[in-house]
Amino acid sequence: MPDSADKRINILNQKEVEEVYGFPRFSDEERIIYFALTPPEQQLVDIHRSLASKVCCILQLGYFKANKRLFDLDEAERDIRWVIEHYFPESKSINIKIPKSTRIDQQTRILDLFEYRLCDQTMRADLFKKALHIARVSSKPVFVFKELAGYLDKNRVILP
Question: Three-state SS for 157?
């Protein structure tokens, strides 16, 4: 008997899922762009005392600017080295493990800085209604997904 996962609709192919939800993979040129700090972003970094917190904050800012998403930093080793070399060259290497509360605080401040918010229950209910309306135009799942993603972006809400 097939399990419930087999009954799910595949809206995006694996490459598209990776583009939308995957961890950012930057070239050196992209790192220069996304890890550059505006004065308000630099102020956000400067409120942190530890080097690990500062590095994590720069990484979170860069990833958010690139994808409008928040990430854990488990896959950030190359970016960590780049940020340390460019912003903290006096440091050899560090353990960038920070407390979960610090990571959440950074993410909250980043959302505030860019005037974004997480997708809450109210927005999910709005999305459901919007999906029903969109499905009247086209029942193609990828069309519905792209319209909902655009709606979230327009309303400055992170894609769930």
Answer: strand
